[in-house]
Amino acid sequence: MIDQLIKTPFTELTGVRHPVVQTGMGWVSGPRLVSGTANAGGLGILASATMSFAELDAAIIEVKGRTDQPFGVNLRADAADAPDRCQLLIDHGVKVASFALAPKPELIAKLKEHGIVVMPSIGAAKHAVKVASWGADAVMVQGGEGGGHTGPIPTTLLLPTVLDGLRSAQSDIPVIAAGGFFDGRGLAAALSYGAAGVGMGTRFLLTQDSAVPDAVKQLYLERGLTDTVVTAKVDGMPHRMLRTDLVEELEGTSALKRMGPTMRRTLEFKMDSGMSWAALLKDGRAMKKAQGRTLGQMALAANTPTMLKAGLVEGDTSAGVLASGQVVGVIDDLPTCEELVDRIVTRAVDELRRASSYVV
């Protein structure tokens, strides 16, 4: 385990040693991976969207039992129980609250009042400026190379526009760059752009500390740079994942033929989560309001957790999907989180020193 070699506004803000973030991936970012990242000096983020309230409480307690280092929890800002979950973070003294969608200003204020760093994920410069004006402490920007829900703009273009937008708005909040990062060269490049760190999902999924089944990890390791696809056929929104027989089948199936399996998986998710139909409908209405989804997209969204669980937890690729960034095509090993973070940071330092030697 290496000492701190790079200090950025993000490491100062969160208290982590290294400007490396393990993103909150549903069914993947559990206590073992989060604590492994935290103990390695990075910021591990617990994914709570696929957890019930009680499961989240237990997961936070488990992480705190495994590490004394700062960590975060990713929350759905549009979830019906978002205020209760935020209170849970306050009660447990969690360091960082990250959000896939921006929380309301009053929720940001409540978290900040209790010393919790608020870091929404955004996909456009205007969104970064907006959440900064609401009081967000940092933002994570994910380019189109990233896994899971993603946009069409690559990180190399999205990141500078976000940085420029914040600068024009006279905001100096730290920006974490995500989408396409896997090694120290990427961290050095992000820092050179003006980011304060990098976020990685697929790279942390493919570590020894990840609870994803070994057979599924091997499937990822065998894939190349062209073996992912962005599709809206899974949950109605652009979603990058590995090309599998199931995904190819979904791509060629009509909405009518997908309706039966969609309803079955929605019922499975309701049973797994313990949510009542009233709570599920309330969440759906909140999602429609926050994201502008159609009724069909909301139905698809409700069955997505079940499909991800089948692939990433149960290892059943015939019934499940496997979210993945394009970096899967350049990853060929399964280090521990400590080995991964150490080599990313040391390589970044080497690259930054090499680049600085060009300056005359």
Give the tags.
360 residues, oxidoreductase, globular, alpha/beta, three-stranded antiparallel sheet, eight-stranded parallel β-barrel, 48% helix, TIM Barrel
Structural features, described:
With 360 residues, this protein is α/β, with parallel strands linked by helices. The chain has 2 domains: 229 residues, Alpha-Beta Barrel (TIM Barrel), CATH 3.20.20.70; 89 residues, no CATH class. 48% of the residues lie in helices and 12% in strands. The strands form 2 sheets. The protein has an 8-stranded parallel β-barrel, surrounded by 6 helices. The protein has a 3-stranded antiparallel β-sheet with strand order 7-11-10, with no helix packed on it. Helix 6 links the parallel strand 5 and strand 6. It is globular, with a radius of gyration of 19 Å. The mean pLDDT is 90.
How would you summarize this macromolecular structure in one to three sentences?
This is Nitronate monooxygenase. It comes from Nocardioides mangrovi. With 360 residues, the chain is α/β, with parallel strands linked by helices.
